[in-house]
Protein backbone atom coordinates (compact mmCIF):
# COMPACT_ATOMS: atom_id res chain seq x y z
CA UNK A 1 0.00 0.00 0.00
CA UNK A 2 1.59 3.30 -1.05
CA UNK A 3 1.20 6.58 0.76
CA UNK A 4 -1.41 7.89 -1.71
CA UNK A 5 -3.75 4.97 -1.00
CA UNK A 6 -3.19 5.40 2.75
CA UNK A 7 -4.09 9.08 2.51
CA UNK A 8 -7.20 8.16 0.53
CA UNK A 9 -8.32 5.73 3.23
CA UNK A 10 -7.61 8.19 6.02
CA UNK A 11 -9.65 10.85 4.21
CA UNK A 12 -12.51 8.41 3.74
CA UNK A 13 -12.54 7.40 7.42
CA UNK A 14 -12.40 10.99 8.64
CA UNK A 15 -15.19 12.04 6.31
CA UNK A 16 -17.31 9.15 7.60
CA UNK A 17 -16.75 10.31 11.19
CA UNK A 18 -17.43 13.91 10.23
CA UNK A 19 -20.57 12.87 8.36
CA UNK A 20 -21.97 11.17 11.44
CA UNK A 21 -21.29 14.10 13.75
CA UNK A 22 -22.91 16.46 11.24
CA UNK A 23 -25.93 14.17 11.14
CA UNK A 24 -26.26 14.26 14.96
CA UNK A 25 -25.74 17.72 16.41
CA UNK A 26 -26.78 16.66 19.89
CA UNK A 27 -26.47 13.83 22.41
CA UNK A 28 -29.29 12.60 24.64
CA UNK A 29 -28.35 11.35 28.07
CA UNK A 30 -30.62 9.99 30.82
CA UNK A 31 -29.55 9.30 34.40
CA UNK A 32 -30.62 5.97 35.90
CA UNK A 33 -33.92 6.74 37.63
CA UNK A 34 -34.68 5.47 41.14
CA UNK A 35 -38.28 5.78 42.23
CA UNK A 36 -40.18 5.07 45.41
CA UNK A 37 -43.32 2.99 45.19
CA UNK A 38 -46.43 5.17 45.17
CA UNK A 39 -44.44 8.35 44.53
CA UNK A 40 -43.36 10.29 41.45
CA UNK A 41 -40.14 9.19 39.76
CA UNK A 42 -38.06 11.79 37.96
CA UNK A 43 -36.46 10.57 34.73
CA UNK A 44 -33.78 13.20 34.25
CA UNK A 45 -32.48 13.51 30.69
CA UNK A 46 -30.69 16.27 28.85
CA UNK A 47 -29.44 17.07 25.38
CA UNK A 48 -25.87 18.11 24.83
CA UNK A 49 -25.91 20.53 21.92
CA UNK A 50 -24.58 23.91 20.77
CA UNK A 51 -28.10 25.20 20.38
CA UNK A 52 -31.12 23.64 22.10
CA UNK A 53 -32.97 21.49 19.56
CA UNK A 54 -36.75 21.43 19.23
CA UNK A 55 -38.20 18.06 20.27
CA UNK A 56 -40.58 16.72 17.66
CA UNK A 57 -41.17 13.12 18.75
CA UNK A 58 -40.53 11.03 21.87
CA UNK A 59 -41.22 7.30 22.04
CA UNK A 60 -40.53 5.37 25.27
CA UNK A 61 -40.72 1.58 25.16
CA UNK A 62 -40.04 -0.83 27.97
CA UNK A 63 -37.51 -3.43 26.83
CA UNK A 64 -39.31 -6.70 26.24
CA UNK A 65 -42.61 -5.06 25.37
CA UNK A 66 -43.89 -4.34 21.87
CA UNK A 67 -46.13 -1.34 22.53
CA UNK A 68 -44.56 1.96 23.63
CA UNK A 69 -45.62 3.08 27.11
CA UNK A 70 -45.34 6.75 26.13
CA UNK A 71 -45.49 8.60 22.80
CA UNK A 72 -45.37 12.34 22.23
CA UNK A 73 -45.74 14.04 18.86
CA UNK A 74 -45.34 17.80 18.79
CA UNK A 75 -46.81 18.43 15.34
CA UNK A 76 -50.16 16.81 16.25
CA UNK A 77 -49.74 17.70 19.96
CA UNK A 78 -50.52 14.03 20.58
CA UNK A 79 -49.70 12.04 23.73
CA UNK A 80 -50.47 8.32 23.83
CA UNK A 81 -49.73 5.61 26.38
CA UNK A 82 -49.60 5.34 30.15
CA UNK A 83 -51.19 8.53 31.55
CA UNK A 84 -48.80 8.43 34.51
CA UNK A 85 -46.02 9.79 32.27
CA UNK A 86 -45.70 13.61 32.27
CA UNK A 87 -43.58 15.51 29.75
CA UNK A 88 -43.49 19.11 30.95
CA UNK A 89 -39.70 19.32 30.62
CA UNK A 90 -38.83 17.09 27.66
CA UNK A 91 -36.48 15.37 27.26
CA UNK A 92 -36.92 14.84 31.05
CA UNK A 93 -40.04 12.94 32.09
CA UNK A 94 -41.96 12.22 35.25
CA UNK A 95 -43.66 8.96 36.19
CA UNK A 96 -46.43 9.36 38.75
CA UNK A 97 -47.54 6.70 41.24
CA UNK A 98 -44.53 4.47 40.58
CA UNK A 99 -45.16 0.72 40.72
CA UNK A 100 -42.87 -2.30 41.05
CA UNK A 101 -43.82 -3.29 37.49
CA UNK A 102 -42.22 -0.05 36.24
CA UNK A 103 -38.76 -1.36 37.13
CA UNK A 104 -36.59 -2.29 34.17
CA UNK A 105 -34.74 -1.05 31.09
CA UNK A 106 -36.35 1.34 28.63
CA UNK A 107 -35.53 2.54 25.13
CA UNK A 108 -35.84 6.28 24.58
CA UNK A 109 -36.29 7.35 20.96
CA UNK A 110 -36.19 11.08 20.25
CA UNK A 111 -36.46 13.09 17.02
CA UNK A 112 -35.49 16.74 17.10
CA UNK A 113 -34.74 19.63 14.79
CA UNK A 114 -31.09 18.54 15.07
CA UNK A 115 -31.61 14.87 14.27
CA UNK A 116 -32.69 11.72 16.10
CA UNK A 117 -31.34 9.46 18.83
CA UNK A 118 -32.20 6.14 20.38
CA UNK A 119 -30.79 5.49 23.85
CA UNK A 120 -31.52 3.35 26.89
CA UNK A 121 -32.17 4.15 30.52
CA UNK A 122 -33.23 2.19 33.61
CA UNK A 123 -35.87 2.69 36.25
CA UNK A 124 -35.25 1.15 39.65
CA UNK A 125 -37.93 1.02 42.29
CA UNK A 126 -37.60 0.93 46.07
CA UNK A 127 -39.91 0.67 49.06
CA UNK A 128 -38.84 1.14 52.68
CA UNK A 129 -39.40 -1.77 55.06
CA UNK A 130 -41.75 -1.31 58.00
CA UNK A 131 -40.25 -1.31 61.50
CA UNK A 132 -39.09 -4.85 62.31
CA UNK A 133 -40.92 -6.88 64.96
CA UNK A 134 -39.12 -9.37 67.21
CA UNK A 135 -41.07 -12.35 68.49
CA UNK A 136 -40.23 -15.73 69.96
CA UNK A 137 -41.77 -19.11 69.24
CA UNK A 138 -41.77 -19.98 72.94
CA UNK A 139 -44.45 -18.30 75.01
CA UNK A 140 -42.04 -18.13 77.93
CA UNK A 141 -38.27 -17.94 77.58
CA UNK A 142 -36.36 -20.01 80.10
CA UNK A 143 -32.72 -19.52 81.03
CA UNK A 144 -30.84 -22.57 79.69
CA UNK A 145 -33.84 -23.63 77.60
CA UNK A 146 -34.37 -23.57 73.82
CA UNK A 147 -35.29 -20.29 72.17
CA UNK A 148 -36.34 -19.37 68.62
CA UNK A 149 -36.27 -15.65 67.99
CA UNK A 150 -37.82 -14.12 64.88
CA UNK A 151 -37.24 -10.69 63.43
CA UNK A 152 -39.81 -9.86 60.73
CA UNK A 153 -39.96 -6.82 58.50
CA UNK A 154 -42.50 -6.41 55.72
CA UNK A 155 -43.45 -4.06 52.88
CA UNK A 156 -39.96 -3.51 51.44
CA UNK A 157 -38.44 -3.64 47.96
CA UNK A 158 -36.04 -4.91 46.69
CA UNK A 159 -35.07 -7.81 48.97
CA UNK A 160 -32.92 -6.75 51.92
CA UNK A 161 -31.36 -8.54 54.84
CA UNK A 162 -31.44 -8.67 58.65
CA UNK A 163 -28.51 -8.57 61.08
CA UNK A 164 -28.58 -9.65 64.73
CA UNK A 165 -26.58 -8.31 67.67
CA UNK A 166 -26.69 -9.07 71.39
CA UNK A 167 -26.47 -6.66 74.31
CA UNK A 168 -22.68 -6.41 74.02
CA UNK A 169 -22.89 -5.77 70.22
CA UNK A 170 -21.66 -9.27 69.31
CA UNK A 171 -22.71 -10.12 65.75
CA UNK A 172 -25.00 -13.18 65.72
CA UNK A 173 -26.05 -12.89 62.06
CA UNK A 174 -24.11 -16.01 60.99
CA UNK A 175 -26.32 -18.13 63.27
CA UNK A 176 -29.54 -16.81 61.77
CA UNK A 177 -31.56 -18.10 58.82
CA UNK A 178 -33.16 -15.53 56.54
CA UNK A 179 -36.39 -16.18 54.66
CA UNK A 180 -37.50 -13.75 51.95
CA UNK A 181 -41.13 -13.97 50.86
CA UNK A 182 -42.69 -11.82 48.11
CA UNK A 183 -46.26 -10.76 48.74
CA UNK A 184 -49.08 -10.47 46.20
CA UNK A 185 -48.18 -6.80 45.81
CA UNK A 186 -44.56 -7.72 44.94
CA UNK A 187 -43.25 -6.28 48.21
CA UNK A 188 -40.99 -8.49 50.31
CA UNK A 189 -41.28 -9.77 53.85
CA UNK A 190 -37.99 -10.61 55.54
CA UNK A 191 -38.06 -13.14 58.36
CA UNK A 192 -34.82 -13.95 60.17
CA UNK A 193 -34.77 -16.80 62.67
CA UNK A 194 -32.15 -17.01 65.41
CA UNK A 195 -32.20 -20.38 67.05
CA UNK A 196 -30.73 -21.25 70.51
CA UNK A 197 -30.49 -24.72 72.03
CA UNK A 198 -29.66 -23.20 75.39
CA UNK A 199 -30.51 -19.56 75.90
CA UNK A 200 -28.29 -17.59 78.27
CA UNK A 201 -29.71 -14.34 79.73
CA UNK A 202 -26.14 -13.03 80.06
CA UNK A 203 -26.29 -12.14 76.33
CA UNK A 204 -28.69 -9.36 77.22
CA UNK A 205 -31.20 -7.71 74.96
CA UNK A 206 -31.01 -8.82 71.30
CA UNK A 207 -31.33 -6.27 68.53
CA UNK A 208 -32.18 -6.87 64.89
CA UNK A 209 -31.34 -4.38 62.15
CA UNK A 210 -33.07 -4.30 58.74
CA UNK A 211 -30.81 -3.42 55.83
CA UNK A 212 -32.03 -2.60 52.33
CA UNK A 213 -30.52 -4.04 49.13
CA UNK A 214 -27.71 -1.47 49.37
CA UNK A 215 -26.90 -2.52 52.96
CA UNK A 216 -28.25 0.74 54.35
CA UNK A 217 -30.10 0.55 57.66
CA UNK A 218 -33.86 0.96 57.38
CA UNK A 219 -34.96 0.08 60.90
CA UNK A 220 -34.07 -1.70 64.12
CA UNK A 221 -35.84 -3.31 67.00
CA UNK A 222 -34.96 -4.54 70.50
CA UNK A 223 -36.10 -7.92 71.80
CA UNK A 224 -37.11 -6.79 75.34
CA UNK A 225 -37.22 -10.49 76.24
CA UNK A 226 -38.69 -11.63 79.50
CA UNK A 227 -36.69 -14.57 80.78
CA UNK A 228 -38.65 -16.56 83.29
CA UNK A 229 -36.89 -18.71 85.89
CA UNK A 230 -34.30 -21.36 85.11
CA UNK A 231 -34.55 -24.72 83.36
CA UNK A 232 -34.97 -26.60 86.69
CA UNK A 233 -37.59 -24.18 87.92
CA UNK A 234 -39.22 -22.67 84.85
CA UNK A 235 -42.65 -21.92 86.28
CA UNK A 236 -41.55 -20.04 89.33
CA UNK A 237 -41.18 -16.47 88.19
CA UNK A 238 -41.45 -15.13 91.80
CA UNK A 239 -38.49 -17.20 93.01
CA UNK A 240 -35.93 -14.53 92.48
CA UNK A 241 -37.92 -11.52 93.61
CA UNK A 242 -39.29 -13.34 96.67
CA UNK A 243 -35.74 -14.07 97.77
CA UNK A 244 -34.87 -10.41 97.37
CA UNK A 245 -37.91 -9.41 99.45
CA UNK A 246 -36.93 -11.76 102.23
CA UNK A 247 -33.40 -10.36 102.26
CA UNK A 248 -34.72 -6.80 102.32
CA UNK A 249 -37.15 -7.54 105.16
CA UNK A 250 -34.41 -9.22 107.20
CA UNK A 251 -32.15 -6.22 106.75
CA UNK A 252 -34.86 -3.76 107.81
CA UNK A 253 -36.02 -5.75 110.87
CA UNK A 254 -32.41 -6.51 111.84
CA UNK A 255 -31.35 -2.91 111.73
CA UNK A 256 -34.44 -1.91 113.76
CA UNK A 257 -33.49 -4.41 116.49
CA UNK A 258 -29.85 -3.28 116.51
CA UNK A 259 -30.95 0.35 116.70
CA UNK A 260 -33.26 -0.42 119.63
CA UNK A 261 -30.48 -2.28 121.48
CA UNK A 262 -28.06 0.60 120.95
CA UNK A 263 -30.66 3.06 122.26
CA UNK A 264 -31.26 0.95 125.38
CA UNK A 265 -27.52 0.57 125.96
CA UNK A 266 -26.94 4.30 125.63
CA UNK A 267 -29.75 5.04 128.11
CA UNK A 268 -28.29 2.63 130.66
CA UNK A 269 -24.82 4.07 130.26
CA UNK A 270 -26.10 7.58 130.80
CA UNK A 271 -27.62 6.62 134.16
CA UNK A 272 -24.48 4.84 135.17
CA UNK A 273 -22.40 7.80 134.14
CA UNK A 274 -24.67 10.20 135.98
CA UNK A 275 -24.08 8.19 139.14
CA UNK A 276 -20.33 8.21 138.64
CA UNK A 277 -19.58 11.65 137.23
CA UNK A 278 -19.70 13.07 140.74
CA UNK A 279 -16.70 11.01 141.78
CA UNK A 280 -14.67 10.23 138.66
CA UNK A 281 -15.91 11.80 135.48
CA UNK A 282 -14.12 9.42 133.10
CA UNK A 283 -14.37 6.13 134.93
CA UNK A 284 -14.31 3.16 132.61
CA UNK A 285 -16.65 0.21 132.98
CA UNK A 286 -14.35 -2.45 134.38
CA UNK A 287 -12.06 -0.20 136.36
CA UNK A 288 -12.22 -0.68 140.15
CA UNK A 289 -13.94 2.11 142.09
CA UNK A 290 -11.27 4.37 143.53
CA UNK A 291 -11.02 4.98 147.26
CA UNK A 292 -11.51 8.56 148.45
CA UNK A 293 -10.53 10.35 151.57
CA UNK A 294 -13.13 11.75 153.99
CA UNK A 295 -12.59 15.29 152.76
CA UNK A 296 -13.06 14.29 149.17
CA UNK A 297 -16.30 12.48 150.02
CA UNK A 298 -17.56 15.46 151.91
CA UNK A 299 -16.81 17.66 148.94
CA UNK A 300 -18.68 15.33 146.60
CA UNK A 301 -21.66 14.83 148.89
CA UNK A 302 -24.09 17.07 147.00
CA UNK A 303 -23.42 15.12 143.78
CA UNK A 304 -24.06 11.78 145.47
CA UNK A 305 -27.35 13.07 146.72
CA UNK A 306 -28.32 14.19 143.26
CA UNK A 307 -27.39 10.83 141.76
CA UNK A 308 -29.36 9.00 144.40
CA UNK A 309 -32.40 11.17 143.65
CA UNK A 310 -32.03 10.42 139.98
CA UNK A 311 -31.83 6.68 140.74
CA UNK A 312 -35.10 6.86 142.63
CA UNK A 313 -36.85 8.52 139.74
CA UNK A 314 -35.91 5.73 137.38
CA UNK A 315 -38.34 2.92 136.96
CA UNK A 316 -36.68 -0.12 135.53
C1 LIG B 1 -31.55 -1.49 39.37
O1 LIG B 1 -31.95 -2.82 39.68
C2 LIG B 1 -31.18 -3.81 39.04
C3 LIG B 1 -31.76 -5.15 39.39
O2 LIG B 1 -33.13 -5.13 39.32
C4 LIG B 1 -29.73 -3.68 39.48
O3 LIG B 1 -28.94 -4.63 38.80
C5 LIG B 1 -29.21 -2.28 39.20
O4 LIG B 1 -27.93 -2.13 39.73
C6 LIG B 1 -30.13 -1.25 39.82
N1 LIG B 1 -29.69 0.08 39.46
C7 LIG B 1 -29.67 1.10 40.31
C8 LIG B 1 -29.28 2.41 39.75
O5 LIG B 1 -29.94 0.96 41.48
C1 LIG C 1 -42.39 -13.92 61.80
O1 LIG C 1 -42.22 -14.86 60.76
C2 LIG C 1 -42.26 -16.21 61.16
C3 LIG C 1 -41.96 -17.08 59.95
O2 LIG C 1 -42.62 -16.64 58.83
C4 LIG C 1 -43.63 -16.53 61.77
O3 LIG C 1 -43.66 -17.86 62.22
C5 LIG C 1 -43.87 -15.58 62.93
O4 LIG C 1 -45.16 -15.77 63.45
C6 LIG C 1 -43.74 -14.14 62.49
N1 LIG C 1 -43.85 -13.28 63.65
C7 LIG C 1 -44.63 -12.17 63.67
C8 LIG C 1 -44.66 -11.39 64.93
O5 LIG C 1 -45.28 -11.85 62.69
C1 LIG D 1 -22.47 -9.17 60.90
O1 LIG D 1 -22.32 -10.43 60.29
C2 LIG D 1 -22.87 -10.51 58.97
C3 LIG D 1 -22.76 -11.96 58.50
O2 LIG D 1 -21.54 -12.52 58.80
C4 LIG D 1 -22.13 -9.54 58.06
O3 LIG D 1 -22.65 -9.58 56.76
C5 LIG D 1 -22.26 -8.13 58.63
O4 LIG D 1 -21.52 -7.21 57.86
C6 LIG D 1 -21.79 -8.08 60.07
N1 LIG D 1 -22.09 -6.76 60.61
C7 LIG D 1 -21.21 -6.03 61.32
C8 LIG D 1 -21.65 -4.69 61.77
O5 LIG D 1 -20.11 -6.47 61.60
Characterise the protein shown here:
With 316 residues, this protein is α+β, with helices and mostly antiparallel strands. 26% of the residues lie in helices and 35% in strands. It has a six-stranded mixed β-sheet with strand order 2-11-10-5-6-7, with no helix packed on it. A hairpin with a 7-residue loop joins strand 5 and strand 6. Helix 2 packs across helix 3. The chain is elongated, with a radius of gyration of 46 Å. About 7% of the residues have low confidence. The structure holds 2-acetamido-2-deoxy-beta-D-glucopyranose (3 copies). The site of one 2-acetamido-2-deoxy-beta-D-glucopyranose (NAG) has 4 residues, from loops.
Please outline what is shown here.
26% of the residues lie in helices and 35% in strands. The protein is α+β, with helices and mostly antiparallel strands.
Amino acid sequence: MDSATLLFFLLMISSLCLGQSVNNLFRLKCQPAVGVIGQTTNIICDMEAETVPIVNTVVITKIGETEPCFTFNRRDDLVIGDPRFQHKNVPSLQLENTMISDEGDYSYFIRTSHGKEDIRFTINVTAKYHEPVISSKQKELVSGGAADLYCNASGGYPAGTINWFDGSKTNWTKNAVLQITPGDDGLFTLSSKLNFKSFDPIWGDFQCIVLNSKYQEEGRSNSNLQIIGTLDNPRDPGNDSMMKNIVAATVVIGSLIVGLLIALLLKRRRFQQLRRTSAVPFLRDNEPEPVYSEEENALNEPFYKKAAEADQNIEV
